[in-house]
Amino acid sequence: MEKLKERIQQIKKKRPGYGEMLEFYQKVKEAQQGIKTSLKIRPLKLKKEWKELLAKEGFSLIQKEDFPLNIEASIKLFGTLLQIGKDVNPHMTEQVRKIEETIEDKRIDLKILLNKGIKEQKIEEVADELKLDKVFLSFLIQSSIKPSIEAGREQLLSEFNPETWLKGYCPVCGSLPHLSLLREEVGKRYLVCSFCGYQWRIDRLFCPFCNNKEQESLQYFYGEGEQAYRIDLCDKCHQYIKTIDLRPLGESDPSLEDLATFHLDILASQKGYQRPVPNPWTT
Ligand SMILES: [Zn+2]
Ligand SMILES: [Zn+2]
Question: Which of 123, 70, 133, 69 is CA-nearest to residue 99?
Fold first, then answer.
């Protein structure tokens, strides 16, 4: 947490425009960290034969909805996040007020909602019905269940490590990546799962969204004076992924670096490319 705070201060100095979101990010992380120590989830075990079969067939270990959630802890965290969100900006203040109202008059049952949180489409339905901002609602739900999801992921990986996966989707839960990373001296490339946060090794020239490996249709650009951040564009599917080079940055938090380089997403979108998994902090 100390390292994260230090990095947030550094970024704030360099890009004061991100100040408000950076402060929000820090508070959310602190709240998530706060419930981690006491978090207990139902044990998640897979049979050895099953794991081998999954790896061989290219299926992920489990599906998103198979993650056990600690609902009490998630409800508590949801409440804390509402309090934090209240003071960030007028839009969030208004959204928090609306959400609190729907909880009070029982139009939302948090227990059910958090369980649905795993299915993006369900959240959209609820948001439409209650006239809430779906991006913000989904963000709150995902952030509230995240400690449980990460605990589940760790359990699975303590007995299985999919080192030779090399696919565009997560070996643990099958979700798409939201970022790619370069690390170690030679710049090995990894993808980061947008749902469970697992990081897996991948070829350097590869579009995870359409499996394109052809050099001619894969290009990239950097932000001005920002060699640590790269946007990898694919001319086959017209989508992109942001790549963060952790070598100059040290082991920084990828989601934080992502949030603080939203200007690159704007550039990519101006060039006509789409991001399959948008940055949840800035949309
Ligand atoms: Zn995953
Ligand atoms: Zn592609």
Answer: 133
Distance 255 CA to ligand 1 centre (A): 15
Residue 200 CA to ligand 2 center (angstroms) comes to 18
Distance 218 CA to ligand 2 centre (A): 8
Can you point out the beta strands (E) in the chain? 177-183, 188-193, 199-202, 218-223, 226-234, 239-245
Beta-sheet strands, E only, within 124-283: 177-183, 188-193, 199-202, 218-223, 226-234, 239-245
Q: Ligand 2 centroid to 235 CA: how many Å?
A: 7
d(CA 32, ligand 2 centre) in Å: 34
pLDDT digit string, tens, across residues 200-249: 999 999 999 999 999 999 999 998 888 999 999 999 999 999 999 999 98
Assess contact for 190 and 178: CB atoms under 8 A.
no
Residues in contact with 227: Cβ distance below 8 Å, sequence separation at least 6, in sequence order: 245, 248
**Ligand 2 centroid vs 239 CA: distance in angstroms?**
6
Distance 169 CA to ligand 2 centre (A): 13
Q: Tell me, in angstroms, the distance from the centre of ligand 1 to residue 252's CA.
A: 20
Q: Measured in angstroms, how far is the CA atom of residue 90 from the centroid of ligand 1?
A: 33
Distance from residue 101's CA to the centre of ligand 1 (Å): 33
Which ligand has the minimum distance to the alpha carbon of residue 61?
1
Which of 4-13, 52-61, 112-121, 151-160 is the most confident on average?
4-13
Q: Structure tokens of 144?
A: 């509230």
Q: Tell me the C-alpha distance between 188 and 206, whole Å.
A: 13
- Token pair for residue 270? 């101006």
What pLDDT shows up at residue 198? 94
Retrieve residue 188's tokens: 């090995």
Q: How far apart are CA 274 and CA 227, in angstroms?
A: 22
152: pLDDT strictly greater than 80 = yes
